[in-house]
């Protein structure tokens, strides 16, 4: 991966995260409920997710994938297995702190 591609991925990542925040809070700081430190952590978390997604795409773009039906079957099977495991091990569901 060339330095230009890395810079391009970084730029697109920053713009995507800022655009998502701007869509949610169009009037800016007047509506923003978080402090500066929380805002920084939120942006870093969003950037990390976008960069990981971009790097996964770059790493797998040359891989020869099986057919659509096979891929869909595996994805649905994994999703149902995850739901089953959640139902068995967490019968009360996932609870967040109040």
Give the overall form: flat
Q: What is the number of strand segments? A: 0
Structural class of the helix and strand makeup?
A: mainly alpha
Uncertain regions spanning at least 5 consecutive residues: none
Calculate the terminal CA-CA distance, rounded to whole Å.
44 Å
Query: Mean pLDDT across all residues, rounded?
Result: 81
**Portion in strands:** under 5%
Q: What is the helix tally? A: 3
- One letter per element, helices H and strands E, the order comes to HHH
* Radius of gyration, whole Å: 19 Å
Helix content: over 70%
| Biggest sheet architecture | none
Count of distinct structural domains: 2
Structure description:
The structure is a single chain. The chain is mainly alpha-helical and 98 residues long. The chain folds into two domains: 3-63, no CATH class; 66-98. The chain is 70% helix and 0% strand. The chain has helices at 3-24, 36-60, 68-89. Helix 1 crosses helix 2. The longest helix has 25 residues, at 36-60. The protein starts with a helix and ends in a 9-residue tail after the last helix. The relative contact order is 0.08.
Short structural description:
The chain is mainly α. Helices cover 70% and strands 0% of the residues.
Features:
98 residues
SSE blueprint and pairings:
Elements: H1 3-24, H2 36-60, H3 68-89
């Amino acid at each position: 991966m060339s330095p230009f591609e890395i810079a391009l991925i970084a730029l697109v990542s920053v713009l995507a995260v800022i655009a998502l925040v701007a869509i949610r809070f169009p009037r800016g700081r007047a509506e923003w409920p978080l402090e500066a430190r929380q805002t920084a952590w939120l942006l870093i978390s969003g950037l990390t997710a976008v960069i990981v997604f971009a790097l996964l795409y770059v790493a797998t773009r040359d891989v020869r994938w099986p057919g659509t039906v096979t891929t869909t079957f595996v994805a649905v099977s994994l999703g149902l297995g995850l739901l089953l495991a959640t139902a068995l091990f967490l019968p009360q569901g996932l609870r967040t702190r109040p």
